[in-house]
Amino acid sequence: xxxxxxxxxxxxxxxxxxxxxxxxxxxxxxxxxxxxxxxxxxxxxxxxxxxxxxxxxxxxxxxxxxxxxxxxxxxxxxxxxxxxxxxxxxxxxxxxxxxxxxxxxxxxxxxxxxxxxxxxxxxxxxxxxxxxxxxxxxxxxxxxxxxxxxxxxxxxxxxxxxxxxxxxxxxxxxxxxxxxxxxxxxxxxxxxxxxxxxxxxxxxxxxxxxxxxxxxxxxxxxxxxxxxxxxxxxxxxxxxxxxxxxxxxxxxxxxxxxxxxxxxxxxxxxxxxxxxxxxxxxxxxxxxxxxxxxx
Length: 295
Hints:
This protein has about 300 residues and is of the alpha+beta class. The chain folds into 2 domains: about 15-100, Phosphorylase Kinase, domain 1, CATH 3.30.200; about 105-265, ATP-grasp fold, B domain (D-amino Acid Aminotransferase, Chain A, domain 1), CATH 3.30.470. Helix content is about 30%, strand content about 25%. Strands 8, 9, 12, 13, 14, 15 and 16 form a 7-stranded antiparallel β-sheet that branches. A 5-stranded antiparallel β-sheet has the order 1-2-3-7-6. Strands 4-5 form a two-stranded antiparallel sheet. Strand 10 and strand 11 (about 135) form a beta hairpin.
């Protein structure tokens, strides 16, 4: 079972991200999710078989489950509904691509955290804050926060995104739009928490991206609540003070943290077969909980 690391379609390339190859189709964009995987902002040399299909279908589930909160950029999810010139490439696109409206992407990532984990834990242990937001004393790893917190970041073309305050975000996008982004992001996170809980999983944190149409309409874009953009934990294995088993990229991060001699800069190290298989199994587990199956 081979992983698809890149695509080479005869359309203008809009950009190639860490995971997605994006092509320009007139007023629309064609987003193709490859099987690439990244960690610590480095793309791994091997892909995860079927990962692009899993991400696309999980995101499509969430686009549908959150459409009443905010509109999204989806135009079509089936190749049969794509422009005629694209249909000839159905074997490469089916299940791992979407046709979307082209927007002006906002230069911020909208992060929502509901539990203490990752970089937030390190800052809390040092200063009692997460992204500058003061939290109660005595919290431990994986503890649920009193309320979800909104912690935006910049979107950097290279290197790590930079955490910023809500006030700084408002300076970048404007006060009114900043407040909308915060409120919508929190509403999306709460919807994710609600529906994930019914599947036996905890949504610890996630990030969203937004764009504006020419008429000013705000859309959620890129991906929503996927295991690439979110931290999902098994609810029945959660314990305060311990890193819960996850159904996301944490399995990869945990492995990379054990390596000596890699400074988290490109080139990334080769992944053992058991790590590749472990990631794939976790992504498939998460997808199946939301009714996503691969034919």
